[in-house]
User: What shape does this take?
Amino acid sequence: GESVGLHLPTLSVQEGDNSIINCAYSNSASDYFIWYKQESGKGPQFIIDIRSNMDKRQGQRVTVLLNKTVKHLSLQIAATQPGDSAVYFCAENIEDSSYKLIFGSGTRLLVRP
Amino acid sequence: GAGVSQSPSNKVTEKGKDVELRCDPISGHTALYWYRQSLGQGLEFLIYFQGNSAPDKSGLPSDRFSAERTGGSVSTLTIQRTQQEDSAVYLCASSLWAGRNNEQYFGPGTRLTVT
Assistant: This one.
């Protein structure tokens, strides 16, 4: 399944540099957020999540920052590698519909060798 | 172990025809989700199942769309009288249970093209 579109925002970074992908969410009631990575021809893959009682969460080479005041989420990827090239989506979840994820439109990350 | 599988991977159909899309979730996963992804867009939630029950069908775009799940495993998404705006990638995901503490694992999707 092809996921990338012609008009996705694109971030181009040099291999080895850090990447920052941003996401604005819409619902102030959302209290759980997930970042997904989608490679061409594949379904989305979970990267990292964060709850609204946290401002920051770190994983392996990735950090998610949450600013509830301005309803902004970011994904930082350290030492970006060619294998990080993909489309990245943020998804939000509202507590009273805990099964349902609302996805953003995505950002394409291109890593230059 | 095997992940979520979907079939067919690609489907081209003529406007007005019915199509069935199939999803095989990860064994043991009780929750199953259907999403639609249009070109250049994020995923749009359609419906989810907990077991064989679909508590929320509100994401289905019209009454031409329906889904069922039998035996707590395989699910089919049926689109009747397809329209060109139905063209999209249809993604299925499964998780151990429905709910936020249960990671959703996605299949590769079915690309539907309505001509």
